[in-house]
Amino acid sequence: MSRQMQQDSATMPTAPGGASTGHGLDWPALFATRAERMKASEIRELLKLLDQPDVISFAGGIPDPALFPADAFGAALTSALSGDSKGAALQYSVSEGYKPLRDWLVTRMASLGVECSADNIMITSGSQQALDYLGKLFLSPRDTALVGWPTYLGALQAFNAYEPSYDRLTPLGNRSAADYRETAQGKGGPGGGKVKFAYASADFANPTGETLQASARENILDLATELDIAVIEDAAYQSLRYDGDEVPPLLALDIERNGGIDNTRTIYCGSFSKTLAPGLRVGWVCAAKPVISKLVLMKQAADLHSATLNQMAIHQVASDGFEAQVARIKATYMARRDAMLAALARHMPEGVTWTRPDGGMFVWVTLPEHFDGAALLAESIRIERVAFVPGKAFFADGSGANTIRLSFSCASEAMIEEGIMRLGRVVRGG
Amino acid sequence: MSRQMQQDSATMPTAPGGASTGHGLDWPALFATRAERMKASEIRELLKLLDQPDVISFAGGIPDPALFPADAFGAALTSALSGDSKGAALQYSVSEGYKPLRDWLVTRMASLGVECSADNIMITSGSQQALDYLGKLFLSPRDTALVGWPTYLGALQAFNAYEPSYDRLTPLGNRSAADYRETAQGKGGPGGGKVKFAYASADFANPTGETLQASARENILDLATELDIAVIEDAAYQSLRYDGDEVPPLLALDIERNGGIDNTRTIYCGSFSKTLAPGLRVGWVCAAKPVISKLVLMKQAADLHSATLNQMAIHQVASDGFEAQVARIKATYMARRDAMLAALARHMPEGVTWTRPDGGMFVWVTLPEHFDGAALLAESIRIERVAFVPGKAFFADGSGANTIRLSFSCASEAMIEEGIMRLGRVVRGG
Q1: Could you tell me which chain A residue has the CA closest to the CA of B126?
Q2: How much is the CA Rg of chain B, to the nearest whole Å?
Q3: How many CB pairs below 8 Å do chains A and B form together?
Q4: Using one digit for the tens of pLDDT, what is the confidence trace for A103-126?
Q5: Tens digit of pLDDT for each residue in A139-188?
């Protein structure tokens, strides 16, 4: 448990500190200005110390490895490395990605309401790489990215490398395009900065677990159309719905408005990390051809292509039983979500509120104003041996000190009951 | 043959052209300024048309897939997906890379004269990713990178995303630090640009096949010390030496000068692509800890980590028989190099010169001044069905029209004799 806890983007450990041991170079003076925004998180350093078996962790936000289809992957890899395909499986391949996998994704996207061709799809090394590439494609220093308050920490980390400003994306339709535009110009210095895209995780978002309903998605598309900017739709958790009806992806709604994917402004980022396995690093981008063409040139220059063998294995396992695998993990995670919501209702004192996600891996807890999530974590670990992620890091403006993120994906129902009971004691003590 | 030909970074095909099919967005207006420097190469488009079995190709520059240890990889992957390791093999892992592989690399680097610890090593998705990350770490727009004329095209492509200027690195020690500094300031506009690093492929470089002798390496370190800049050592081909004694890596010479790796300015980029297999995308960076620490943060934000399973498989195959595998491929490539050098001597007319590489995959041919490599390629394909890469793309200043790159790694000795004979006829006709 404690090892897994360290391993999502919010909690991944880093190498030992940056100080040189001798009379080395003044590296910071040589680094590009963007390097100043690449910092180790204090929380992550704290969580590194927690590699202890008696800690119950709700920090991770990663899939339960017991649910990985390891045998299916073993068979797929053995097959890829036998017979005619073995040379190709280990050789360089094209930057766009393995064509049979892109074809499979065309069918998958169609089932979500997105009609496209293989030329609208590029394979990435996980959807994190898609976020990095999209930051690289759109953001010059001082451009503005619209993100939620809170939003996925990994998106902020990916975009930060390109030195943007952030403004708050609200899906309520209550702020005018002119207001967004003026704010971006004000932040851009002489000449003015431009708003380049709105980033949103539409389903069971990390960290809140919340889903944007169709009206909120339409609001985002309205705003993006008025601003004439792109929309980045992070669909990492989309397949993990436990209740309610599917809401069409932003990209599907955009196609409805504009008659075809090549006329849309929405860039959909998908991932196999939450459904099949994250360790193979396979995700995809689905968007208008001019965007995919440029991303392919970028990928060629950045890492040539994602691992050939991994794309073949994902294709085989997805073709043989994607739906069955997803059904299996949904049953497990849904029971854990239910256990966490029930335990929160039992053990949290008055004044504490939380989200009730229809899917995904996260519940987002808002504590009374005077709480500080980081201080609470220190207390919680020391006294009750329970871990979670303080919410502040998910806010581009540094607010949210009284929020925390709980993940239910990697704990058994019994551990969830015990852990939330302990957490309730800490909160009552705060 | 013709499929393989397309698949190194000089020749990899791209997605269909960037024009939108409908009334889509004005994407170029939304893209960051860096996107202007990401362009499809005309040569690459030409070579895409060549997927025909009767063409003899010296264009690729990729390993011969017949030499991949496919059975060893099959066994390693099966083992990683069995028993206790199977959850970890498919799970998220740390950004630094798989510890047993980093430990193996510590021993490997020691055998090259580089004493280091696992904290001096980060795993990358091929050495191409290391070049991208190092461009990202050091280059702000208008900073200067020193590169050879010619140099590895993929390095220029990786660095271009960060909008640098280039200046010519000569290993002859005949240009002063002050001169480099002034040139960089002149290119940087108001405030001035800075030289950030010198990039060099020290052994059997792509594209020339040439090796920097120890004195040339010392010259580069002298210059870098005077300019107080980093040195990026691209060691992708280093293991493929067929003749002569090993020359210590720049990083080893730097350690000798400065007493320990954490006091050095040299960043070594290694790869398993030319020795074990490129399709798994596993390489590494070895450098002072302050550089590795920053790269780990960067990697975490950019793609979380390289595929876990692939690192495990590379570790297993390398541990079981790296030296035997390298000996096997060296014997094959050496015979092909010899065949190509002999064929060039037999078939090339007066006035044509070429390099005599001690290793690697490339011979670099210089034709009389009036030749144009791109025009020669068109002729050569049309009349004689022989392909190669025109040299101009390897020059940051657009010179080198009368040069061509020949790769001997993927053609049998008989094909080499036949292909060079045909090429000789085309050159005589030019």
Answers
A1: A303
A2: 22
A3: 354
A4: 999 999 999 999 999 999 999 999
A5: 999 999 999 999 999 999 999 999 999 999 998 878 999 999 999 988 76
Rounded mean pLDDT of A414-426?
A: 98
The Cα A272–Cα B285 span in angstroms is 28
In contact, B275 and B239? CB cutoff 8 Å: yes
ipTM metric: 0.94
> Strand runs (DSSP E) across B41-178, as ranges?
56-57, 121-124, 144-147, 165-168
- The tokens for A120 are 């609208």
For the stretch B407-418, pLDDT in tens is 999 999 999 999
d(C-alpha A271, C-alpha A239), whole Å: 10
CATH 3.40.640.10 given to domain B70-321: yes
CB B238 within 8 A of CB B252: no
Structural domain boundaries in chain A: 2-15+30-69+324-429, 73-321
Q: Which of A21, A35, A143 shows the shortest C-beta gap to B137? A: A35
d(CA B318, CA B295): 24
Chain B residues within 8 A of A88 when measuring between CB atoms: 65, 279
Q: Is the pLDDT of residue A45 over 70?
A: no
CATH assignment of A73-321, among 3.40.50.10540, 3.40.640.10, 3.90.550.10, 3.90.226.10: 3.40.640.10
Q: Are A288 and B27 an interchain contact pair (Cβ–Cβ within 8 Å)?
A: yes
Q: Which CATH code fits A2-15+30-69+324-429?
A: 3.90.1150.10
Mean pLDDT throughout B359-365? 98
Average pLDDT over residues B262-284: 98
- Within its chain, how far is the Cα of B122 from the centroid? 18
